[in-house]
Amino acid sequence: xxxxxxxxxxxxxxxxxxxxxxxxxxxxxxxxxxxxxxxxxxxxxxxxxxxxxxxxxxxxxxxxxxxxxxxxxxxxxxxxxxxxxxxxxxxxxxxxxxxxxxxxxxxxxxxxxxxxxxxxxxxxxxxxxxxxxxxxxxxxxxxxxxxxxxxxxxxxxxxxxx
Length: 162
What we know:
Blueprint: H1 18-38, E1 43-44, E2 47-51, H2 62-68, E3 69-70, E4 78-79, H3 81-85, H4 89-96, E5 103-107, E6 115-120, E7 125-131, E8 136-143, H5 146-160
Parallel strand pairs: 2-8
Antiparallel strand pairs: 1-2, 3-4, 5-6, 6-7, 7-8
């Protein structure tokens, strides 16, 4: 088992004030996202993993913002510090999904979607991939909260049954 990548902390980024430091942090996270995820040649189950680029916001891909923010309505989403800290985990979880026992991989039981959950169970961190004809679309990555944990446990147990 390989170690998880370290957290990326705001304090690691330079700036004369919080606003400048925050801007540098987001730009730094975006560089990590581009290098390891969007341009990282990721594969899941021998198919490429792709990211949604549009609509671009503030010069950054849609998928990046979706993985860094939380909220139900797109217009009301806000940046989540815990998601930001774990941006380097996205590629690691996808790359290790089928080889690391800490990651539970299972189809999500939802009508109208063929989606897969890659759940780093002990850390309560999940990645959702939507299955397409010849690739997987990276939908989001997030910290798993109580209501979602219950749903994931249900889906995981249903998947494990023979």
